[in-house]
Design brief:
single chain; 130 residues; mainly alpha; elongated
Length: 130
Amino acid sequence: MNSGSAWTGYYLSLQATKYEKLFRFTAQISSGLLDKANSLKGAKISSGFGKALGLAGVGFTVLEDYNNNGKIGVGTGVKVTIGLATTFAAGAFAPIALGYIIADVSTGLITGTTITDRIAAGVENTIIGQ
């Protein structure tokens, strides 16, 4: 949980998402048009920054897997897919993605291995026949 992918993909990206929600809420309760516009602009910037951090986390995942294993395997592809899905989840899928992220981070902090890492290892082991 101390890897670059965890810090950028989870911790920093979640902070940006939190600020985006705060800006959107501020826009809803603001009475002046300028205040609403500024809050919505802040939300848009925070959203873009959060997505960029999510993509950086995915990039770090690929780099870390390559540095640890000397290759990029199917398990890496699974982690990248989950990372992209949680980064770009929208609409009805956004709360599901947030719930998954919370469960993933919590599991990683408690056990030292995230749900995503466990899924990726299971797929990788199944593919290579272990």
